[in-house]
Amino acid sequence: MIAMRYKLYYWPEIQGRGEFVRLALEDAGADYVDVARRPNGVAAMTRMLESRRPGVAPFAPPVLQVGREVIAQTANILLFLGSRLKLAPRSEFGRLRVHQLQLTIADWLTEVHDTHHPIGSGLCYEDQRPEAKRRAADFTRNRLPKYLGYFERTLERGSGGYLLCRTCTYADLSLFQMIAGLRYAFPLAMKRLARRSPLLLALHGRVAARPRIAAYLASPRRIAFNPHGIFRRYAELDSG
Amino acid sequence: MIAMRYKLYYWPEIQGRGEFVRLALEDAGADYVDVARRPNGVAAMTRMLESRRPGVAPFAPPVLQVGREVIAQTANILLFLGSRLKLAPRSEFGRLRVHQLQLTIADWLTEVHDTHHPIGSGLCYEDQRPEAKRRAADFTRNRLPKYLGYFERTLERGSGGYLLCRTCTYADLSLFQMIAGLRYAFPLAMKRLARRSPLLLALHGRVAARPRIAAYLASPRRIAFNPHGIFRRYAELDSG
What is the pLDDT of residues A97-122, one digit of tens each? Predict the structure, then answer.
């Protein structure tokens, strides 16, 4: 197979869902362009989203273009890249296992988003603050420990440092991003829950230390967490 | 390949996410057991969910068991069944297209669920009614037309009656279920939006008329919509 240049289309000022794709491309050392971060890049993204090419149009970014093919939905892009970039097992059931974990991470991420947008994604945070406080309290009390516990147990079973034992997959990279984002958004809740999640914290450190990921995180390509992304730090939503 | 008996594990009293799997199995005429609907079936499901078998444990039902393999996450199960049951194209990019559509349906379904549970899935509806009214109003005004418009345009492009033109895939079966559920839960909003969705309504009828689906819908295997499922009819959440 000829090495392809991948084109990623995603909002240029946030990590958001695009970050899960960026981490896979970066860890594999893939040749890619982050289209919307170049001059006039957002206009290029809008044109691509609105173009009437054959095939299935994306509902929303992120979108990955490979030659003439266009793939959308974060977990679907990772399913594709997992095979191409050796970030998933080769066997059918192995690939399904990684994808299952990724889809659970996707559900978790949506719940994180909804802590600050429980009423409508088109409204701003300030217009749904009381509801956000209630939802975030339920999240940090019930859902966050449930997800952390699930992934901690999955790491326990694998007992090789990564979700599927010793090989790093795109789901491990995504889990790193979840831990990083949750520590940014909910520092108190995460500090309280950390002692029950030693393997998750070790995974976070292990991924951060992978040479290409370490170089990426130290580069200007890594956008900082900020108040416009999915992971947001609002003190009133956190709880120790 | 030897014909396998599939075991589906899902809550026995609701359609829920399990229904998307049931529709695929039924349309293909697959040999399957709906484990939790048999005597002591819920106990069997609990045992399976809590068993410490090797591999990746499910986070939640639905779960499909095939021989010794266990697959969870609705879209992941359908990705697997799509290949086995000829409910997806054979080509890699064709399979990714169907999966992309399925993941967009999954996002949509989560938003439907959150109209009646915007604060916490562990709380009952009565404990989050004011928030549910606000979220449902945003859903019927903004999100529902957006999703309907997206799938209507996708059907327009394909112009063969199904999402990927002339062949019915698991995403078409799931889209049928979305339309059926939305008409049950939001009859007024759907009546208002129907005139802009003629191809979606035609798809709903086309799937309902497929011989095995028609037989299934008329059988006791099809659980009726009810106030415990994802699609719930609360008049105060609907809007004409």
Answer: 999 999 999 999 999 999 999 999 99
Chain A CB contacts of B55 below 8 Å? 97
pLDDT in tens, B104-138: 999 999 999 999 999 999 999 999 999 999 999 99
Do the Cβ atoms of B100 and A164 come within 8 Å? no
Give the pLDDT of residue B2.
54
What secondary structure does DSSP assign to A169-192, as a single string? -HHHHHHHHHHHHHHHH-HHHHHH
Residue B106 belongs to a domain: yes
CATH value at residue B146: 1.20.1050.10
Half-sphere exposure of B217 (CA within 13 A, CB side): 16
Give A212→chain B minimum CA distance, Å: 27
Amino acid symbol at B90: R
Assigned domain for B237 exists? no
State the smallest CA–CA distance between residue A122 and chain B in angstroms. Answer: 8
Final residue before a domain boundary, out of A84, A116, A151:
A84
Cβ contacts of B122 on chain A, cutoff 8 Å: 138, 142
Say whether A150 and B59 touch across the interface (CB within 8 A): yes
**Range(s) of the domain holding residue B157:** 92-210
- Residue from A100, A134, A143, A150 whose CB has the most chain B CBs within 10 Å, to mutate: A100
Tell me, yes or no, whether A12 lies in a domain: yes
Q: Do A78 and A101 reside in the same domain of the chain?
A: no
My answer on whether A41 and A100 are in the same domain is no
B63-95, pLDDT tens digit by residue? 999 999 999 999 999 999 999 999 999 999 999
Buried b (16+ CB within 10 A) or exposed e, A115-153: bbbbbbeeeeeeebeebbbbbbbbbbeebbbebbebbbe
- Would you say residue B50 lies in a domain? no
- Closest partner CB to A119 (pick from B55, B57, B134): B134
Residues of A within 8 A of B109 (CB-CB) are none
How many domains are there within chain B?
Answer: 1
- Checking if the pLDDT of A163 tops 80, the result is yes
Q: Averaged over B23-52, what is the pLDDT?
A: 95
CB contact under 8 Å between A93 and B69, yes or no, is: yes
Q: At what angle do helices B74-84 and B92-116 cross, to 10 degrees?
A: 150
* Sheet of B69-72, strand order: B32-34, B6-9, B63-66, B69-72
